[in-house]
Specification:
The protein has 451 residues and is α/β, with parallel strands linked by helices. It has three domains: 4-266, Type I PLP-dependent aspartate aminotransferase-like (Major domain) (Aspartate Aminotransferase, domain 2), CATH 3.40.640.10; 270-357, Aspartate Aminotransferase, domain 1 (Alpha-Beta Complex), CATH 3.90.1150.10; 381-449, Alpha-Beta Complex (Molybdopterin biosynthesis moea protein, domain 2). Helices cover 37% and strands 13% of the residues. The strands form three sheets. The chain has a seven-stranded mixed sheet with strand order 1-7-6-5-4-2-3, sandwiched between helices. A four-stranded antiparallel sheet has the order 8-9-11-10. The chain has a two-stranded antiparallel sheet with strand order 12-13. β8 (294-296) and β9 form a beta hairpin. The relative contact order is 0.11.
Length: 451
């Protein structure tokens, strides 16, 4: 597969040009990659008005993912999420239906802030009491869509712990209700390249975002916005406008070259190596299960352990492993998450297994996270997000209204969402996850909004 962006940049560098344009480093390699770092000079195309080398590279990606259209992001899936919601809002308006989205409660904080900026009403979908997982059933979704006129559904699959939703069944429900299914597939770009694809596009999603950098050989910040063949043509035609509305006008050409070069890898032996990696991790999972470890999720290249049955928290286990220079992706009181790829050396699987096997089991830790609160919203998301706010210690937040999400990244799933009142249940959960303060709406704003 050709690499038009990389070819252009390399040819430009080989011509020994006088770089009388941005960026200011002029190709001098202080860090190393500067000679390959360009701006939108003639021939380099323009990311969100692409009709040259970038468009040809995006078309290569679309052919690999089987999409009707694929657009690059140099600003991660966060940019793609904003664009998806903007396009969803346009769809709702054209259908004469309310500007509302039914969303799994484990959505990334970017979804929440984007909904606030676009003034979309969010109606949360719950599936269990966990913060990071939403086990949404087709029956629940059918009931929710039947009870509302909403035409947008947003889910996160895979979630941070490695659970994959039944996208095919959920997509079928959405399409029966003439609703679009939007999928945050940030952790699942590789799913397309398994022996049998599990990618949301192949399961019926209308739009989805992939963080290429999370699981593919791409620099941090590289991502895709994909359009399924079921997506309305007018939304596909608005792809660049939607991305450009929120994006920087100075995208990283290093990231674009990384996305371009990934096409060549994905069209080559990388897919075979992915299958080998999944088999290697599956073998590790079987050994850990045999040794008494509790596992979560069904992702082929993600390992999630629940260490409390063996007497330690996720954070404690992460610290023990870090002392041996083994670094996890994420840990909280209940879980620890590891991510692998075809570029993970085989010896790293052995190192991890040997380290885990050497940790002695202790009496189980019995405590569980407090239930996820389901408060009635006191203010619209947009109003709360844009209101004057103050930061207070948790003990002073009871009864106040949350202004901005209190969440770290990872996992970036808000414990409470903008405009919701902070009750005792929410305080318990915030303390459990280590929060010390909250940004709350100033009392004067609440009084001004009172009927």
């Amino acid at each position: 597969m050709n690499t038009p962006i990389c070819d252009f940049v390399r040819a430009y560098g080989a011509s020994a040009p006088a770089r009388l344009h941005m960026p200011g480093h002029k190709g001098v390699p202080a860090l190393g990659p500067e000679p390959l770092d360009l701006t939108e000079i003639p021939g380099a195309d323009v990311l969100y008005h692409a009709d040259g080398i970038i468009r040809r590279s995006e078309d290569n990606a679309a052919s690999l993912f089987g999409s009707a259209r694929t657009v690059y992001s140099a600003e991660g899936s966060s940019l793609c999420i904003r664009a998806m919601l903007y396009l969803g809002l346009q769809y709702a308006k054209r259908q004469g239906r309310p500007p509302a989205v039914l969303a799994g409660r484990n959505a990334h904080s970017t979804f929440l802030t984007a909904a606030g900026l676009l003034d979309l009403e969010v109606r949360w979908l719950y599936g269990g009491d966990g913060l990071l997982t939403c086990d949404l059933t087709p029956e629940t979704l059918d009931e929710e869509l039947s009870d509302s006129r909403a035409c947008l559904v947003y889910i996160t699959s895979p979630d941070y712990l490695g659970h994959c939703a039944d996208v095919a069944a959920l997509a079928a429900v959405c399409h029966r209700h003439n609703a679009l299914l939007l999928v945050d597939n940030a952790h699942g770009a590789y799913l397309r390249f398994l022996p049998t694809s599990r990618h949301p596009l192949d399961l019926g999603a209308d739009l989805c975002c992939d963080s290429a950098h999370k699981t593919l050989p791409v620099l941090t910040g590289g991502a895709y916005l994909h359009f399924g063949h079921s997506c309305p043509a007018d939304l596909i035609d608005s792809a660049h406008r939607a991305m450009g509305l929120f994006a920087s006008t100075s995208p990283s050409y290093l990231i674009l070259q990384s996305l371009d070069l990934a096409n060549k890898a994905l069209a080559g032996v990388w897919t075979e190596r992915l299958g080998q990696t999944a088999e290697r991790l599956d073998a590790l999972k079987q050994k850990l299960t045999h040794d008494g470890w509790t596992l979560l999720g069904d992702e082929p290249v993600k390992l999630t352990l629940c260490p409390k049955p063996r007497g330690c928290t996720g954070g404690e286990l992460a610290a023990l492993l870090q002392a041996q220079n083994l670094w996890c992706e994420f840990a909280d009181p209940d879980c620890i998450v590891f991510m692998v790829s075809p570029d993970t050396p085989a010896e790293d699987f052995t190192r991890l297994y040997d380290a885990l096997r050497a940790i002695p089991a202790k009496p189980p830790i019995a405590d569980c996270p407090p239930p996820l609160p389901r408060p009635e919203r006191a203010l619209p998301i947009r109003e709360a997000l844009l209101s004057p706010c103050e930061t207070l210690p948790l003990d002073a937040c009871l009864g106040r209204v949350l202004a901005a999400p209190t969440v770290s990244c990872p996992p970036a799933v808000p414990i409470l969402t903008c405009g919701e009142p902070i009750g005792p249940e929410a305080l318990n959960l915030l303390r459990y996850y280590g929060a010390e303060t909250c940004d709350v709406v100033c009392q004067e704003k609440i009084l001004d909004s009172a009927p």
